[in-house]
Amino acid sequence: MKEKQVRGINILNPVDIDREYYLNSIDYAIKNNYNHIQINGPIHNLKRSNLDGMMFYNKYSQFNGEKDADYVKHCLKVVNEGLEKSHAAGIKTYMWHHELEVPNDFRDAFPEIVNEYGDVEVSHPIIKDFLENKIRDFFAQYPLMDGFVLTYYETKIPLLRLKGQKMTVNEIMTYVTGILYRTCKALGKEVIVRTNATTEKDYQILLEAYEKVSTDDLMIMEKWTQFDWSLSLPSNYFIRNIKKNPLLMETDLFGEYYGKGRLPLMLKEHIQEKVAYCEQYNSIGYCSRIDRGGFSSFGTVNEVNLHVMKAVLGGFDLEETLDKFFAENYGKAGPAVKAVMEKTEWIVRKMIFANEYYFSQLSWFPDINHSKNHFYFELMREDYKIASNEWFVPVGYERGPVENIFNDLNYSKAEAAKCMQEIEALKGVLTEEKYQQLYVDFKNLELASACWLEMANIFYNYVRYFDEKKPEYKAAMFKAMEDLTALDAKGKALLGKEFYCNFIDINAERRNGEKVLDFIASVKESFAYEEPARAALEAENLTDFVLCGSGCEGHEIQKEVNFSDTVMVGGEQARITGNKRGMEWSTITAHGWFSYKLKIKPGQENVISVVAGSSTDTLKMKVTIGDKEWIVDQPNEGKNTLVFKYAAGADETNVRIRFDKISGNMPMMYNVKVQ
User: Fold this and answer.
1) Predicted confidence band at 223 (pLDDT cuts at 50, 70, 90)?
2) How many CB atoms lie within 10 A of CB 426?
3) Torsion of CA 523, 524, 530, 535, to 10 degrees
4) Which residues contact 25 (CB under 8 A, 6 or more apart)?
5) Residue 610 vs residues 374, 547, 617, 659: alpha-carbon distances, Å
6) Fewer Cβ neighbours under 10 Å: the N or C end of the chain?
7) b/e 191-229 (16+ beta carbons within 10 angstroms → b)
8) Where would I find the H helices in 614-663?
């Protein structure tokens, strides 16, 4: 394969800049012929994220008090030290950045930029001036930084979702990208743009905006999997549309959604498959994520993936490369360690697959009160109904027999146990340090695979109890919780703070917690609410009803990926038109929605009632039933009953009801009833 123009690594995902690791990564890049480094940094930290979090404003210095001044000073010292080293070696360096971001007090200082929705009016000249000055200030303080990598998602002000703007969303994306691009161009700096989209529509909007700004030197970086990182997501077919701009492929070698580096995993098949796919297109190179949450591939068995990628891109003999890696790192035990690692990709795949597609992520032990929770439960029902236009569900997806899911999970559990035995047989052959590393990794794989099986048993028996009304399912659910509790205790006893299933992720910083026990507690809390609440609704003899946010919520719920979580409010479950974190910090953004497919009586006027609440003293949202819209704007009195009438056509047996967040308050739905 012809050597690529860009050979990159992406580091410090998404954590504070660590001097030793940063400098070591530059040494690694120099040694392995990389010419491109991207620094992610603490993008989820509200004070230290983005370009804003690592510099002091000049013109807008009145907002510097919001910054973590010590962290800014740390970055100015450490990052510039690293830049001198990488610049001398001919390696370009780029900082990750998200827009639109403004200081917390920006709206108060400039109230003229806020529109009637409470959102920032993007076209206001103050926004343009702030962006231009921010970019100039950043490069003045980091003169050897070559540019930045731009993302429009995961921001305080989501440009793709704003309401009531003077410009269309297409115009907004072109306008803001143009400001950033031209400011950098004038400074001799580069912008690398990402789509990182969660919908097909967003992909197209962003691509059109980028092409309008520049097709010469505006590099577009796309993930090699569609929408996000997963072993089960398809190859990113959207890259076929990128024909005018330079294309850079973004890859993940650390397993962001399949272990985050804490489970042993050799991605030999995955890397070969994705590179072969990407090579159909005229990319200028690859940039690979090689760490996550403070953990690195360096010095671990998973460092093998960096060597797989290097061999595939360089056209080297892959098996020779693998043999060399395992021999250099594990001596006489090299062939045995390689043989065990060969099994890991499919052990992990089968833990998260359902008929060769998504069952659950493997980042950490899952939370049920999350935007994806309905999928875990619904997939276990006999008569399952899953909307196939969500980002992780293929169109026309068929689960197949539910037994297949459990066959895969049992396969993973059995194979992981065998791998553990093979590693234990190497004690005395390996150095004690190498043996302990492998012991922890493979014991975590063994325990995690067993935990995922019990998790699936809990979901299965939960929904089967409500669907079939058989008490043995309830007993089996609580038995699975007991077994999961025992596995949790075993993991803690054997591995202590290294037990994978009890890592938690707070703003992408790994800490030790009680993930498994918290999960069990949340299932019990949900079940205790759902059992009487569902029985009461069933007794009303309704045409249909939804118990929002519950395990048996169903109704082919649709929503945008991270914009509809579930919450417990006073012991009752509800679904919100946004994410829980957004309730804490993204108060000005009018985004988030979800919808249900309801049964209705054909040829009649159907009365549809909704019990709703709000995070503020105002209940404000848009409700859409079929093609009819209502704007709800009233005082919030805890739980509010809203009544709508819908006249169904003669052959109309179902209709969608959709709830949209349209202001700073966060609406929450408890139940929906069709009389």
Assistant:
1) very high
2) 18
3) 140
4) 9, 11, 37, 290
5) 19, 10, 18, 10
6) N
7) bbbbbbbbeeebbebbbebbbbbbeeebbbbbbbbbbbb
8) none
